[in-house]
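Q: What changes when fe (iii) ion is included in the input?
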Amino acid sequence: MKKIYRAHILFTRERTRFEVLENGYVAVDADGRVTGVAADLASLDAEDAEVVDFGDRLLIPAMNDLHVHAPQYRNQGIAMDMELLPWLQNYTLPEEMKYADTAYAERMYRRFVRDLWRVGTMRTCTFASVHTESTRVLMRLFQEAGMGALVGKVGMNRNCPEGLVESVEEMVRGYESLINSQFTIHNSQSLVRPIITPRFIPSCSPEMLRACGELAAKYQLPVQSHLSENKAEIALVQKLEPESTCYGDAYDRYGLFGQTPTVMAHCVFTEGEEIALMKRRGVMVAHCPTSNLNVTTGIAPIRQFLDEGLRVGFGSDISGGHDLSIFRVMVYAIQMSKLHYQRDHARSFLTLSEAFWMATKSAGSFFGRVGSFEPGYEFDALVIDDRELNHDHYSLLERLERFIYLGDDRQIERRFCRGKEIGEPEWRC
Ligand code: GUN
Ligand code: FE
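A: The predicted holo structure follows.
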């Protein structure tokens, strides 16, 4: 049935400014798509529609997380005293090994999906682990929750502990079994779908990278990985792929750089040729500011990426990042861009509308028409009750800003994904 929601509506059609509709209306059809947004009911086709009034609350697009590692959830907020490569070897990969046990995976992944729900993230690009059956568990949980997710069984077969090595044949069989499973029917309309996920160049042999590119092409699946995160990593890639002209080119040679929709996490040291290649191929950047701080990689040049027209969204990158909330990540991104600006005034820092746009409309574009309330968009939304943040002296935009800077899940009263209200998952966690 068609619904019309009434609330104070805020969203970013454009990067540089908010649309603000005080006591506005958004109409959503039975398929969960927005059919109109307006300041008054008379401008919408309200016939046969149920009108739902959210009163003095804010209605905003839900958050999208373009890069997160589900099997690192137990390590959130610990093990922050090393740089990337030793951090992976000593803390991260040993935790991921535990996901050979599907009972452990079920327990931890329930918490992970429930907490994504809590923080208002309705779409996620997630790394799972190498384990096919645990990856299937994670896909089922997203499906049961009603939340959108691209879930990646991780490909890796070198520079990692014995227990995480899979042969190329096993990896392909694992992917095909997920692609064919009842939860992940290969259907571009499905909210939960597989995504091809070579961990990064240092952990995949050329044969494995080639097989990943072939899977992406054969099943027309998106691709995710890590790119230019750390200087030691980049040097290693240059050694492993000496023919490549840049890190991005190493992926490109295997059909893993925009041949199908691609998102690359970090891009801290991406410049020149790599930027040009990403732009040409529409490769999206998942900016992970908390992770960049914690594993001390540096400050990604996000303003430059935006100026050059690259597609950019945010990732929480748990557990390199420590905070699952994309609202928190947004604030870190703004603050880090101000640090960058203090060193180099050539480019300005990120504004609130730019960060909000990145988290909603820009990141949402990786999942289809997601992240805005313009007609044709899937209705992914959060209802924010910010009474306890003393909103009475603030404008609507200031109320949203205070929620982003000071609020948390206690103010998120309702959540919608593709038009459907999503309640708290009922699992025991
Ligand atoms: N590069 C390869 N694997 C990882 C990972 O798990 N986290 C981060 N931050 N970078 C990586
Ligand atoms: Fe990561």
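Observations recorded in class: The first strand starts at residue 3 and ends at 14.
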